[in-house]
Amino acid sequence: MKQLNIVTCGNCGQCLVHKIGVEFIICSKCGLHDELSSFPDAYIHKSQIDSAEITDEVNVNTALGEIISAEYNRSDETPKLFYVVDPQEKNREIFETLEEAEEFAKSIKEPFKISIADVRNYYLENNGKWNYEDKIDTFKIRSTIIHHN
């Protein structure tokens, strides 16, 4: 296995994995292309690494995905504004744009509403989709903009 390093983007905070020895890194989220000094090492507790089974470079993101998301892409304190699709029978989904929310809403075959909400406990998954921990303070609905029965 090649030696890898886990860093955070100095511009947007995205967690990234890179091979040791590279001189430049490109952030997959914001596109920052810079020297290693712009990407500080990420701190992950030793117990989290010991519990992850990493056998090769391909498995790094899979094995550490939940750890990285939980530690570096989550904000339990600062809410972020999202469009929330709330189907009648399924879990809520969160999106950064109204277009994404409407596209998802078209794919479900049940009543739904789309709201604008302050969302806490959110995080970015490895697949680039937003998710959240469903706690009592996760959603603060500002306005319901579409209601479809």
What does this structure look like?
The protein is of the alpha+beta class. It has two domains: 4-72, no CATH class; 80-148, no CATH class. Helix content is 19%, strand content 34%. It has helices at residues 46-51, 60-72, 98-107; strands at 4-8, 15-19, 24-26, 33-35, 80-87, 93-95, 112-119, 122-124, 130-132, 139-148. The protein is elongated. 17% of the residues are buried.
How do the strands and helices of this protein lay out in sequence?
Layout: E1 4-8, E2 15-19, E3 24-26, E4 33-35, H1 46-51, H2 60-72, E5 80-87, E6 93-95, H3 98-107, E7 112-119, E8 122-124, E9 130-132, E10 139-148
Antiparallel strand pairs: 1-2, 3-4, 5-6, 5-7, 7-10, 8-9
Order of helices and strands: EEEEHHEEHEEEE
| Termini gap | 53 Å
Mean pLDDT: 75
Largest sheet, order of strands side by side?
Answer: 6-5-7-10
Global morphology: elongated
Protein structure class: alpha+beta
Number of domains as seen in the coordinates: 2
Biggest beta sheet summary: 4 strands, antiparallel
- Total of helices: 3
Counting DSSP E segments of at least 2 residues, the number of strands comes to 10
| Cα-atom radius of gyration | 18 Å
How helical, in percent, are the residues? 10-25%
- Pick out the low-confidence regions: 45-76
Give the DSSP E fraction (strand runs of 2 or more residues). Answer: 25-35%
